[in-house]
Amino acid sequence: xxxxxxxxxxxxxxxxxxxxxxxxxxxxxxxxSGKDVEKLISKDDTIExxxxxxxxxxxSGEEVLKRIKATKPEVxxxxxxxxxxxENAVQMAQMDAxxxxxxxxxxxxxxxxxxxxxxxxxxxxxxxxxxKGKSFKTIILQLTLSIGIGVLIYALPTPAGLTPEGHRFLxxxxxxxxxxxxxxxxxxxxxxxxxxxxxxxxxxxxDAAWSPYASPAVMFVMMIIMFGVIINEVGLTNRILFGIxxxxxxxxxxxxxxxxxxxxVLSSVFHDATITIIFLxxxxxxxxxxxxxxxxxxxxxxxxxxxxxxxxxxxxxxxILGGGRNPIAVDFLERQYGIHIGFFEFLICxxxxxxxxxxxxxLICYLLYPPKVSELxxxxxxxxxxxxxxxxxxxxxxxxxxxxxxxxxDLTHLHVSVVAAFAIxxxxxxxxxxxxxIIEKFAWDAWLVFGAGVSLGVAMLDTGAGKWLADQFAPLLxxxxxxxxxxxxxxxxxxxxxxxxxxxxxxxxxPIMYPLxxxxxxxxxxITMVLPATTSFVWLVIGCPPTIIAYSTGYFSxxxxxxxxxxxxxxxxxxxxxxxxxxWPLIGF
Length: 589
Prior knowledge:
The protein is mainly alpha-helical. It folds into three domains: 3-125, Response regulator (Rossmann fold, 3-Layer(aba) Sandwich); 136-211, no CATH class; 216-374 and 386-586, no CATH class. The protein contains 28 helices and five strands. It has a five-stranded parallel β-sheet with strand order 2-1-3-4-5, sandwiched between helices. Strand 1, helix 1 (11-23) and strand 2 (27-31) form a beta-alpha-beta unit. Helix 13 (272-289) packs parallel to helix 27 (545-551), helix 15 packs parallel to helix 24 (502-513) and helix 15 runs antiparallel to helix 26 (524-534).
């Protein structure tokens, strides 16, 4: 149980206030002096809040506050004094006091402040762990393991049906995956190693290896990350947070569930990367208020920075508008077989399933990264905001126009990256945000990693490695029930999508899976719908723009992501497969 430490040299007041607080459920310990306070709070980890008198004979309250914060900054200090003024209050706030109260104070007011201080302390103390850098020995071991496994795969005989280039690619791919997972070297460096390695080992020609780094999809991700910098810079995140809190409330379960469902449903209409940017950068001010930084990230921050991109990605298959993979699949079916799937048919078949997949996403995230607290701190609440500034209005209008143009992309035939580019030009050209500011705060590593993922996807297709993997996997599904077949195709598509954009994965898997439809006994129309949906569930952070954007914030590592992504992908593919096995026959699809 957490404890409240009261330090006051007036023994009569000390005894009176401590007794009142004990009757209200507080576990109280008292001291008449701040002497040895560092030793006390260092030894007793249950002390979370200190109620401190400002004027004491042997040591001033300012000095005691300074010592507490130097020893344990997460402990919250409430100043209670009979000799206060505005100047003192400002000074205490600058020294990180939680609140400043004057005697006499109403007991209900005091209890309210102490409870808020306790809530904040729990957030800061929760799962706090020292950040340790890797030892040189660990780095060498991880590098040796990553390279060694790649060499071992290369040394094996080339399997039948696999080209020599495909064999070299799979060996190289395994080394890159291990380097990304272990983070033995910075991920941006590994991303550059992809392009160089594809050339070094004669897997790709220079143009094929490097041009994907500047492909339209990669450039779009770059500009979407810039959008995150922009909305954070102008202050729109606070307004979005206001709306989320107003509708979702402060209870963590209801708030996060609301956030997850809304993120998934909106991603069925708008691009999942856009929704990720809006919600993710709206949560960062909450982390800031709780003094949670990327260096001190805990379950609370990891839970939300993983939940938002995964739920956005999980909702992207709800309508044809939700992502590039959807029109790619529909257009491919019509071009190859003359079979048309309309907007409404696609929506009826998929949008209801988004809800179930979204719930599965929330459950997996909550089980693997439980936030450890039941509600957001009382200080983070929906209070009335001032009128929007000129910058906020300007950026909001430009974003709204961009959303509209993305939504009607089938009519305008404008690539999403073109719309994003003109939006950024307008924002910077009108002086709402300086481009220099965007560049300074841009997460370059994230952009490079996504470019490397697209480059690997192209190599997988060009070398025939993707088709060879499908040929090894498909026989396992022949003769199985539809649920197992849907699940198997989904797992394969999900796995492939983890090394490239989900649009590229859909384009790769369609021509591979169509010839297998007769052997599997599945309709090509069903295969067309399954592939863009299941490529939404990625195993690695490089798999889709939302996860790359979230990774760029620095609140979780590659290992953190894999811990949640693999069970998330398997669970979501299963839920999706189960839903369509039951739902599609009911609607006659």
